[in-house]
Write a structure and sequence with these properties.
Layout (H helix, E strand, L loop, with lengths): L1 H18 L26 H18 L4 E8 L2 E12 L4 E2 L7 E2 L5 H13 L30 H5 L13 E2 L8 H7 L16 H13 L5 H13 L12 H4 L5 E5 L2 E5 L3 E2 L9 E2 L1 H12 L3 E2 L2 E2 L3 H8 L20 E2 L8 E6 L4 E7 L4 E7 L4 H16 L14 H6 L3 E5 L9 H7 L1 E6 L5 E4 L6 E7 L2 E4 L5 E6 L5 E6 L7 E3 L6 H32 L6 H29 L1 H6 L3 H29 L5 H24 L5
Antiparallel strand pairs: 1-2, 1-15, 2-3, 4-9, 5-8, 6-7, 10-11, 12-13, 13-14, 14-15, 16-17, 16-23, 17-18, 18-19, 19-20, 20-21, 21-22, 22-23
Length: 651
Amino acid sequence: MQYRYIQSIVVVALIVALVSTPIGTTAAPAVRSADTLSDQSELTNRTETEAWLDKTMARQLEEYHVPGAAVVIVNDGEVVLAKGYGYAELESQRPVVANETVFSIGSTGKLVTWTAVMQGVEDGQLELDRDVNEYLADSTVTVPDTYAQPVTLEDLGTHSAGFEDTFSGMVADDPDEIRPMEEILTDHQPSRVRPPGQFVAYSNYGTALAGHALAEQSDASFSELVDDRIFIPLGMTDTTYAQPLPDRLESRRAIGYTHQNGEYQSHKPVIWTLPPEGGSLRTTTTDMSRFMIAHLNEGSYNSEQILKAATARDMHRRHFTKSEEVPELNGMAYGFIEMDRNGETIVGHWGDTPRFKSLLALYPERDTGIFVVYNSPGGGPARFELLQAFTDRYYPRSDTPVVEPPAGAAERARELTGDYRSLTISESSWERVLGVMTRTYSVRATDEGYLTTASLGEETRRWVERRPGVYEEVGGGDLLVFQFDKNGRATHLFRHSFGPATYERVPWYESLTVLQSVLGAGIVAFLSVLLLWLGGPVWRRWRGSDIPSDHERAAQWVLGTMSLLWLVVLVIFLFAWINFNAEAASPSLALQAGKVLRYVALAGTVGAIVVTGFAWRDSYWSRPARLHYSVVTALALLFAWQLSLLGILPV
């Protein structure tokens, strides 16, 4: 009787676990008053600009736990201010110096790639609307003909080629592992998962492919082309793709840090194996000022012309519109990301490495640009905050923010709720877990008609309807824009502040709530099996119960082994996600073992299903025990299903 009582408690606990997973709460919307925007200031007043920037950066370094940063502002063809803040190296207290300290700038360096591609267009070597395979005739790299429409350089430059996201092949443990561009692009080619020109989904591979196409049409390597045609003409003498850095730059390199438990931890530089147009560009803020001035001055810097005026303007104009119904929504220029704020035309790019965060923004109509780089992950939110603060100060918003939902907003908001997942996601590997967990937005509605959004690593944000399908951030300037199908159902979500991305509405069974519920219930179920598996003999010995038959023991071993394997697989891939960059560079033995064990666990689940049938047919154990066995087996199936949606268990 006592054993049956314990089994009943376990079954009840499993049911409670299934229904009690929290789905999140929302706070009341906060409204930003109009007086939070400062009066417009003159950018040319260097004293005031420096005082404002000093105060802003000092607060950011402290608030976001960043050891050092550097900023440069240009206007009317000149540097208004270039300044370093904090430390490039904490151990030696080496300060950041704007014209000396060398930073890794990540994908902001892709703007160099696209500038070089457009030089190839000017020379007649490339055409934006031709099949990129025509430029790869002598290369082992070939874009497969998955869809009738070929991938063009226009698609690559607007991140609308339709590639899945992949991190494989991008980093390594040692510079000696860097291979030729052609080999890397061939061995780590992502799948085409949608027709080109349909949606924007950021692609590192697409940029690398464009650089390779240019190099294939030239007699020089990509790095040599960029040196000869961009860096040398602009006097960017402290800018390089070299890994490791030359000695003259290594001594000036900013160290990357993370902040944990009140202390900073230094890290070695990441070794990038994706071709140079990936994340390996290192530079100084003053070198980047020359690049910005050239683009703002229609391709010209001093007496050097790196682009024709028409070409520079073409790179800054919109090339991809994400919503015809909402033209104010940021789309994609060519290589440049639209970053409009306060009604100002802004184009630029941002870059992320594990430790360094950067952002470059051009205001073409104002002949103004700003570039900032930080040496700690806290620079991620800090850079966008700086961009907004800079725009608010010098080009303040003229319209009045919406603060109250209009009539009927509550009903319309309810129709939009659900999870929306970025299309920048892997479809064919365990890397998919990164996209599912970190690039999913959960949209909820309040009774008053506001929308709220939540995503891992971000605070809950509140939105008020500007017009049906278009929502403005309460207390901010961002927009949410929904796309609808012919039946009026929301299918996609766009964020004004994040141009190179599209978010697709996922079915209810792929929502984070279901994922968390199933995985949570599965963990409880598997732990309950292990508890009974290990504690059963002790309990029987204490109570003097009958020894189970051989068939019953075998059935318990099947379920116990399966439960243990699923828990081990989950832990392995959880740690792989936490140590994502290290695993991408060099998969650990644990990850390799996990890739085998997931199939063994699946086989164990099939075995448990078979044994469940025998248990009920032959009346193994008590009825509560059989019910427990059946519930755990069913949860194992659901567990495997959710792991398949995460990419951990390929199908």
